[in-house]
Amino acid sequence: MESSDIFLASNQFGLEVFKILYEKQKSGNSFISPIVLASSVAALYMGASEDTRKRIAKALRLDNNVGEEHVLKLQSYLKALQTQCADHVTLSSGIKILLDKKWNCLNGFKHKIQQLPFTEMQSCDFQHDTDTLAQDLHRWLAQVSNGSISNDLKVDTTDHDQSLSVISCAYFKGKWVHGFDAKNTQLLPFVVAPGHSEEVPMMCATGRYPYIKDNELRYSALELPYQGGRLGVVIILPDEYFGLEVSLLTVLYQFVFLC
């Protein structure tokens, strides 16, 4: 498979996960990083048996004979992107694999994990070391997220029956090519529920941006570029309030998510 095919497959995998999260919690907010999420599952591919490898490849929309070298491209791309964009944005990611002490992994798996960027493996005791494990995870999350994830985040380590846990984290901070002037901030109505809105401060700007209007799926999309020219954020807005149905989510994989 070509690199572009692997990245598009990771986007589609992330979309399927997002659909599940959306169906379970329509009233809340869900944030995922498709390529980091796919990299987390791909890391398990490195130590899986033949049958499990086929299942992982299927979930990631990859060929059964994809090979470890293609799986490595996911994380290699992240590392290259982080280096190439370092002058304009801050991008970091991390994957932590927790394996209960009572289980042994396949020979060579730990060594392969050590060769992967942003990935580490830790032996732990899910049954007896819950407090220590939670503290370790908080420290790790704070480090990867540049302090954005604090100890206020609840980390559930109370499932004593689990044997394996995979945690991924991504942090991104960039500056717009055309920044928002604080003087143009306005109090405007924001609909928070059907028939109910609240006035909130909104950033406002006028300019020329990549834009698309789809009358069939009834949505608009706008791209705001970050400095450096390689990255941007795509904002998708349904025509109707609370109109983000699962059918509309299918448009997401058309856009190339870089992180």
UniProtKB/TrEMBL annotation:
GO cellular component: extracellular space
Serpin domain: residues covered: 15-258
GO molecular function: serine-type endopeptidase inhibitor activity
Tree of life domain: Eukaryota
Family statement drawn from the similarity comment of this UniProt entry: Belongs to the serpin family.
Protein name according to UniProt: Serpin domain-containing protein
